[in-house]
Known about the structure:
homodimer
Amino acid sequence: xxxxxxxxxxxxxxxxxxxxxxxxxxxxxxxxxxxxxxxxxxxxxxxxxxxxxxxxxxxxxxxxxxxxxxxxxxxxxxxxxxxxxxxxxxxxxxxxxxxxxxxxxxxxxxxxxxxxxxxxxxxxxxxxxxxxxxxxxxxxxxxxxxxxxxxxxxxxxxxxxxxxxxxxxxxxxxxxxxxxxxxxxxxxxxxxxxxxxxxxxxxxxxxxxxxxxxxxxxxxxxxxxxxxxxxxxxxxxxxxxxxxxxxxxxxxxxxxxxxxxxxxxxxxxxxxxxxxxxxxxxxxxxxxxxxxxxxxxxxxxxxxxxxxxxxxxxxxxxxxxxxxxxxxxxxxxxxxxxxxxxxxxxxxxxxxxxxxxxxxxxxxxxxxxxxxxxxxxxxxxxxxxxxxxxxxxxxxxxxxxxxxxxxxxxxxxxxxxxxxxxxxxxxxxxxxxxxxxxxxxxxxxxxxxxxxxxxxxxxxx
Amino acid sequence: xxxxxxxxxxxxxxxxxxxxxxxxxxxxxxxxxxxxxxxxxxxxxxxxxxxxxxxxxxxxxxxxxxxxxxxxxxxxxxxxxxxxxxxxxxxxxxxxxxxxxxxxxxxxxxxxxxxxxxxxxxxxxxxxxxxxxxxxxxxxxxxxxxxxxxxxxxxxxxxxxxxxxxxxxxxxxxxxxxxxxxxxxxxxxxxxxxxxxxxxxxxxxxxxxxxxxxxxxxxxxxxxxxxxxxxxxxxxxxxxxxxxxxxxxxxxxxxxxxxxxxxxxxxxxxxxxxxxxxxxxxxxxxxxxxxxxxxxxxxxxxxxxxxxxxxxxxxxxxxxxxxxxxxxxxxxxxxxxxxxxxxxxxxxxxxxxxxxxxxxxxxxxxxxxxxxxxxxxxxxxxxxxxxxxxxxxxxxxxxxxxxxxxxxxxxxxxxxxxxxxxxxxxxxxxxxxxxxxxxxxxxxxxxxxxxxxxxxxxxxx
Lengths: 461, 461
């Protein structure tokens, strides 16, 4: 029996795709590189997922789980053909439990849809990756998605209480549960979070919710240098304010947005860095904190300072941040989009490093990101020609080595996938990589689940 | 060369103990059951820990790491002799980084000492196990310690950013780091948290800190039934208040304290449940939240309601809670102290279950704990005689089965150790246990590290 025949038996003929268009579509993600699968299968439920895994394990067929397909490192795309298992039919919110402050969802619920649903009852699911209108909870869990609100609220990991998952060998396991404390056996839940679909296929997620903060205040401050902006962040932290978001946008990114939108005022002259700061909580507290934010920015030498008076003004302040991705595309066709992270006190050193890369490699490298977490999106822009691409790759290696020297990490949000696998050894020792590979083998003895990801020699195979 | 000779070579003669008193002392923890080691070794640093592990692995000698020795499930005590490795000499706070909001510590820093040190600079390390003046950070990490503040602040897991650890085979690994976001490879950090010293020996910990909340308000409310008390909690949650602590004490526990201290007013007549509630934060917010707490308690039928006007009154309100452990000892000599957890909405069902156990087994079972987390300490009291002990064990099995039926977990704070290993299968499926054992083998191929813990058939060996 062929793979396609057996999969058809499991899910029915309507839920198999082998046409070229589907294979191309399911063969890439936001990285725009990948390899088509031989077949795409769309199971209806956990039992079908388990049967598919068992078959792939028995026949040693590569099996790649896929959620929203919005990743930046190729985590959801095949590199060796085989089967793409799209979880798109497992897309229901099963339960929103207001009393126990939790939600039970299938993996392909769109993150923004869940947020809307829980906010309607006064609750809040904080993780807010930029892709939240396209990406799904299962993918957010597999990648441990972050977002601007992580400074105050933490990343996806902090909200996952329990999982149902299918092992590559076909067993269904449940980890954690509906309780916020559980120390029975090993914490497999948080081992699966961020494992990039290489250990198990997530089929159900129990998420912790928090009360929705009733009030926000949004502020924008403009600084003559990144150093001044980070000084403002330092002063804020010393004033013990914990903003929900603390975003930085550098001059190069602002120029790109101003030019793209043709609104010069979005990037005032001599702006080297813009901070977008949001505090939230009870109204009693928010106005006091906003005032302290203003003081911190003023004391750090902010050139201008705005505070949104209403939601329209708030949206206007966020507009620059939201338009960056599209604006950058107008600079150069290729964007090597990195999500490095350093201890927040070392952010000025990170920006200084990027300056040296700009000079040395003659490339535009607009930067923006979550300065409160030290998590900066460094975008190495390149023309679609071989020499410029080679320069961009050289620059990214120097960037990663520099970030690790600054006690940082080469990825704070996007994961490794296959795109960064060759750089893993910059951050992790051979002993740690060997240990991780033994953990992988404990879950996936035949190496069928999402092969070619994370580990460097897997890529070389 | 004997084990003792080789260990002496590694750490020096002054840091080996083989005398009976030491073997007895290091052969038990707060559970007061265990088995003496053949030798106790006190290494000075990570390199010595690694050399000890390598030797034990090569010679297949059981190796049991030990922190403060305050655990309730025998996690730090040998069940098969061998070597106890006490980390007591690794006891320094290496760094408190105010700007990056983190601390780097050796494992045997006493938790309360770290809290004092960070609070002196306006920071806060929230996890507050009852043992915080004796237990140490390394043990808190190994067990994923909780405490009253977990409702608002989370458990130890939420504060561990990175670890240095020695594998049973002697390799030194570093996981995570000084950044709050890191998605490079598998999250070994959080796999080690709560692994009860069975996967690796923790030799350094990087902890996240938060700003110290400047103001607290402490309230006490007394209710005619557990149901009334839980109703108050529900109302609080619906009012979107997030107290730092939400402790419940049942009538049986209150009676024990009142009798022990001979202060009848501590347990007013007809009290079935007492709530101790603390809100913290900025002063702007705390007084508003305290008022909402009072409203919620009053609306739920509180018989009396107190709010501490100053720190002396606050300490007085906490006094009942602090004296429970000592008071219970006066009831019966043996206390089977369980830390079960259910979704908080099901706490009344848990108390109803305990009532049936009291009737059926004729035992006193005072209960108290962290009602906001649904995490209740159920103390099955017994005389030191065989039939009563047998009844207590029967009651605990029925308790665990009932808790799992309520979508809960058999341990929210204390872990499994060897004391609860035989009950693991009540909560976890054979597939999940088998997977955890494969993970164990990935770290500890020869099974030398802390053998006989967590897994049921290990105990039977």
